[in-house]
Structure formats: structure tokens, C-alpha cells
UniProtKB/TrEMBL annotation, chain A:
UniProt protein name: Alpha-endosulfine
Compositionally biased spans, kind Acidic residues: 1-18
InterPro entries for this protein: Endosulphine (IPR006760)
Localisation: Cytoplasm
Organism this protein belongs to: Scleropages formosus (Asian bonytongue)
GO BP annotations listed: cell division
Record gene name: ENSA
Annotated Polar residues bias: 105-116
Summary of the function given for this chain in its UniProt record: Protein phosphatase inhibitor that specifically inhibits protein phosphatase 2A (PP2A) during mitosis.
UniProtKB/TrEMBL annotation, chain B:
Origin: domain of life: Eukaryota
Gene3D superfamilies from the UniProt entry: YVTN repeat-like/Quinoprotein amine dehydrogenase (2.130.10.10)
GO MF entries: protein phosphatase regulator activity
PANTHER family from the UniProt entry: PROTEIN PHOSPHATASE PP2A REGULATORY SUBUNIT B (PTHR11871)
Keywords of the record: Repeat, WD repeat
Example of a GO cellular component annotation carried by this entry: protein phosphatase type 2A complex
The protein, known as: Serine/threonine-protein phosphatase 2A 55 kDa regulatory subunit B
Record's keyword annotation contains Repeat: yes
Tagged with keyword Repeat: yes
Organism this protein belongs to: Scleropages formosus
Record-linked SUPFAM superfamilies: WD40 repeat-like
Length: 116, 454
């Protein structure tokens, strides 16, 4: 009896699977959407809406916190300034970039490699 | 007229044209510097010049050499003509905004005299560049030596008239106009009007009209910024002037619509004259719908009767007289539909592919991934997939058509969807205005292909 049940269960499962794969074939996009929602359940209520657009409009925006900057400056006064050149071991929060040690954004004075 | 839907077909290509490798420009090594990423490619109106812009703000112009009698089997090669730094990185301290030097678009002006002019733009500033040749110089000054040093006046005993003598060709690029401070948002398009006096520049929310001679003023002709930014639902993605009607322009949106505006109707063209939109089947609506419907490029046909739009998965051709649906739709890489989740995660779903027409508007071309690019032959309903790669780079070697296997059994010579390299994207392509010569940009290389001449 139990084997019969198991068999019918197995049958049902494979039918469901067939239905699933049929759905996938007929609408792969819906399957992809389900995958995405499973990974990121909190993904925006507005699909493709303002979040993307605001991010696009904000491109290039750099933020500066004067409070952090002044705190760091005050801290620095009591200690030696960290050695010039990036010290990657510094804990964030202890080291605020100052204009002096930001890499200068210079234009590439190198000729394009498309030129021979 | 029936809407024609194209699927990846036999890939035989047109019966007339066989595409052959001609040239490749750029470094061979895989380690690509950011600055070398090509960001725009554009032929000039005669096709003699080919300009590229890159992420490093540089412009390189190639010139086609004159056909020589000794080489009847190929058209002239493109060699470097001029290169210059068009834009530099900037920082707007007032807005705390970093402004990239990347060249977003280059547009040539029609040639009026011996010099060539082009407009190049980054996110914020458009520049008009003059490229001129100097092939003679004055010699025989009275007061100067040939090397420029001044002569001792007491040694000057005779008078002579300096004459122009030939010199080695020198090509000079100089910025003639700088059109700045007119865009709050990032410029995505520039387009020269058929009146050859004005041009438009479009950013995410506004389109401005400029006169080529005037840099301190521009007119705002489209403004879609909502009063409350929380209500923002769409942005402008591309804009172009009609090729021969100087009052007509179109702009595309992130929601997949195209608006045609007539500047004669009103000073501010917020109200469109025509709205082109294909209704979506509501049962197909998904999280991805809007993202993949966002139009990344819009181009009028040369004859001005049609326009082409590129969205993430397809190319659509619209008859300007029919707003409710495109007259032709071509699937570029339909097999990506089942990969949208991972394409969203790696941001590829936001890639902005461009598209272009051939000279007589019979074939359209666009790029894809794995360094593949696609051509769709409108009349014959044929499509072709080719690859820009160093492997198929023997001189005049005919390119072999490629095929992607969407699922199931992979045939020999086919490539499976999972093997595609999504870092190798062809976003920018250009077609010579008259001949079958195409320029295809991979990440950092420029390929030039020609049709086989027998």
C-alpha cells in the first residue's frame, strides 16, 4: 500500500515538474523573476521605477561630511600624520582622506592605443 | 502592414555581401586600461573619416587612404589622421560632482570648407573641434632665420618676399567653441540639425537647442523634470534631429516610448506631436519588463521615413506615420530571456547598445555579447551573426557566421548561451554612409570590416 502511495506521489511530482518546465519554456522571464524575488525578497515594489532612475541621476555625486572631516583633523593633531602613500591597514574612520592624499584625477596624457 | 518578427534564422547573410576582415586597431593584450575603453564611433558624411572617442576623453580620427590602382581588390585602409585630448576630468565643487572625461558622443558637421568640424561631448560639456591640414609654410623671412631665431639687424642688407613652400602634412585639432553649463543632468545625445546651424543636446531630463556660433546661450526645448522628483518615472535616453526636416526631432525614454516633436508647434516641446509606443501584453509583465524596454538608441533612416530603436533584446523599425506599433521587430539575442536574473545581478541588463543603418536603409546592425554583432536585412528577412575577434583577423579573411545555441543539443560550431562572455560587449558600431564598410568597437579595439570585392 505504501509503495502504491509512493508511486502515485512520484507520478504527481513528475507531472508537476513537467508543468513547471512547461511554464518555464512558455515564459522564461517569469521564471527569472521568481528566481530574483527568491534571492532578494525586499526588492522594490516599483519594478524599474524611481530607484534606478535616481541612481542614474546621482552618478558622479561625491559626499563629504564636514563633521567627520573636522573630527579626523582634531584626532590627527594629537597623533603623527599617517605616512604619505596609501596605508591599506588603517581602519576606516581613523583615516579621512584629505585633499593632500587623494590621488589627483589627471587626464591621461598618454596617447590612445588605437594610434598604431 | 504586418509586423514582422525575426528570430535567429539561417544566418546566411545577404546573398550579395560577404564580410571580410580589413583592419583592427588597438592593443592586443587583455589587460584593458579604463581610459582605452571605446565609448563612441562615427563616420563623417563622406565616410572618408572615422572618429572614435574613449573613456579617457581622447578622440582618434582615421582617414581612408585614396584607392590605389595597385590594389583593386580592397578599398582604402583607414590610418590615423589626428588625435587629441577632447575632454578632461573635472570636479564641480559647488555640486560636489565628479565629471568624467569620457566622450559620450561624436557628431560630424557636414564639410563646408577645407577644414573638418566635429562636436564631441562628455556628461556636461560639448565642444566644437576644428581639424585642419597644414601642408605649406612661409619661408624666407627677412628678420628671422629658418629656425625662428631673430637675425642680427645689421646683417640684413637685402629685402625679399617670403614664399610658401610645401612641408610635411600636419593635421591640427583646435577647440573652436565650448558649450558649457547648460546641463544639470548627464548628456546622452547630441544631434546636428539639417539646417547646419543648430544642434541639440539631450540629458536625462532636458533637451537644449544651440546655435553653433553661440556658446553663452541655449534654448530649452524639452523638459520632463517633474515638479516633485519623487514622481520621476522616466528619463530621456536618446534624441536625434530628423535628417531633412529641420523642425522635427525625436527622443526616446527609459519606458520604451518615443516622442516626436515639432519645433514649429511651440517654443517648449513638452507636448509631443506623436507618441510611438508598442502596447505590452499585460500577461508578459514582469519585474524586468520596464528595464528591458528602455530604449538605448534611436536613429532615423537616411531617407527620413523610418526610425530604428534599440532596447535590450530587440531592434524595432517604426514608420513615422504609424504610432501604435513598429513595422518590423528583430530579436537580437532572444536566448537571454532565460538569463535575465543573472544579467540583472551583474548589471549587464543596463548595457546600452547602439544601432545603425546602412547607406540605403536596407540593412540594420547592432552589437551583442561575446563580441558578436548582428545584421538584419530588412527586405529579405535575413539575419547574420558575426564576431569581432583576433582569431578571424587575417587580411581579407571572410568572416564565418556564428550561431548561439539556446538550449538542447549544441551543434558543432555553435556556442552555448552559458559559454558567452558577457564582458565582451559590442555597444558601438558604425556603417559607412555609402559603401559596405563597417566599424565595430569591442571594449578597447576597433575592427574595420569590408565586403568582399571580387
Amino acid at each position: 500500500m505504501s509503495t502504491e502511495n509512493q508511486e502515485t506521489e512520484a507520478q504527481f511530482e513528475s507531472e508537476e515538474e513537467k508543468q513547471d518546465s512547461q511554464e518555464k519554456n512558455s515564459n522564461p522571464v517569469k521564471a527569472e523573476e521568481a528566481k530574483l524575488k527568491a534571492k532578494y525578497p525586499n526588492l522594490g515594489q516599483k519594478p524599474g521605477g524611481s530607484d534606478f532612475l535616481m541612481k542614474r541621476l546621482q552618478k558622479g555625486q561625491k559626499y563629504f561630511d564636514s563633521g567627520d572631516y573636522n573630527m579626523a583633523k582634531a584626532k590627527m593633531k594629537n597623533k603623527q600624520l599617517p605616512a604619505a602613500g596609501p596605508d591599506k591597514n588603517l581602519v576606516t574612520g581613523d583615516h579621512i582622506p584629505t585633499p593632500q592624499d587623494l590621488p589627483q584625477r589627471k587626464s591621461s596624457l598618454v596617447t590612445s592605443k588605437l594610434v598604431g | 502592414m504586418q509586423s514582422v518578427v525575426q528570430t535567429a534564422g539561417a544566418g546566411g547573410g545577404s546573398n550579395d555581401v560577404q564580410w571580410c576582415f580589413s583592419q583592427v586597431k588597438g592593443a592586443i593584450d587583455d589587460d584593458v586600461a579604463e581610459a582605452d575603453i571605446i565609448s563612441t564611433v562615427e563616420f563623417n558624411h563622406s565616410g572618408e573619416l572615422l572618429a572614435t572617442g574613449d573613456k579617457g576623453g581622447r578622440v582618434v580620427i582615421f582617414q581612408q587612404e585614396q584607392e590605389t590602382k595597385g590594389q583593386p581588390h580592397s578599398r582604402g585602409e583607414y590610418n590615423v589622421y589626428s588625435t587629441f585630448q577632447s575632454h578632461e576630468p573635472e570636479f564641480d565643487y559647488l555640486k560636489s560632482l565628479e565629471i568624467e572625461e569620457k566622450i559620450n558622443k561624436i557628431r560630424w558637421l557636414p564639410q563646408k570648407n577645407a577644414a573638418q568640424f566635429l562636436l564631441s561631448t562628455n556628461d556636461k560639456t560639448i565642444k566644437l573641434w576644428k581639424i585642419s591640414e597644414r601642408d605649406k609654410r612661409p619661408e624666407g623671412y627677412n628678420l628671422k632665420e629658418e629656425d625662428g631665431r631673430y637675425r642680427d639687424p645689421s646683417t640684413v642688407t637685402t629685402l625679399r618676399v617670403p614664399v610658401f613652400r610645401p612641408m610635411d602634412l600636419m593635421v591640427e585639432a583646435s577647440p573652436r567653441r565650448v558649450f558649457a553649463n547648460a546641463h544639470t543632468y548627464h548628456i546622452n545625445s547630441i544631434s546636428v540639425n539639417s539646417d547646419y546651424e543648430t544642434y541639440l543636446s539631450a540629458d536625462d531630463l532636458r533637451i537644449n537647442l544651440w546655435h553653433l556660433e553661440i556658446t553663452d546661450r541655449s534654448f530649452n526645448i524639452v523638459d520632463i523634470k517633474p515638479a516633485n522628483m519623487e514622481e520621476l518615472t522616466e528619463v530621456i535616453t536618446a534624441a536625434e534631429f530628423h535628417p531633412n526636416q529641420c523642425n522635427t526631432l525625436v527622443y526616446s525614454s527609459s519606458k520604451g516610448t518615443i516622442r516626436l516633436c515639432d519645433m514649429r508647434a511651440a517654443a517648449l516641446c513638452d507636448k509631443h506631436s506623436k507618441l510611438f509606443e508598442e502596447p505590452e501584453d499585460p500577461s508578459n509583465r514582469s519585474f524586468f519588463s520596464e528595464i528591458i524596454s528602455s530604449i538605448s538608441d534611436v536613429k532615423f533612416s537616411h531617407n527620413g521615413r523610418y526610425m530604428m530603436t534599440r532596447d535590450y533584446l530587440s531592434v524595432k523599425i517604426w514608420d513615422l506615420n504609424m504610432e501604435n506599433r513598429p513595422v518590423e521587430t528583430y530579436q537580437v539575442h532572444e536566448y537571454l530571456r532565460s538569463k535575465l536574473c543573472s544579467l540583472y545581478e551583474n548589471d549587464c541588463i543596463f548595457d546600452k547598445f547602439e544601432c545603425c543603418w546602412n547607406g540605403n536603409d536596407s540593412v540594420v546592425m547592432t552589437g551583442s555579447y561575446n563580441n558578436f554583432f548582428r545584421m538584419f536585412e530588412r527586405g529579405h528577412r535575413r539575419d547574420l551573426t558575426l564576431e569581432a575577434s583576433r582569431e578571424s583577423s587575417k587580411p581579407r579573411a571572410v568572416l564565418k557566421p556564428r550561431k548561439v545555441c539556446a538550449g538542447g543539443k549544441r551543434k558543432k560550431d555553435e556556442i552555448s548561451v552559458d559559454s558567452l562572455d558577457f564582458n565582451k560587449k559590442i555597444l558601438h558600431t558604425a556603417w559607412h554612409p555609402q559603401d559596405n564598410i563597417i566599424a565595430v568597437a569591442t571594449t578597447n579595439n576597433l575592427y574595420i570590416f569590408q565586403d568582399k570585392m571580387n
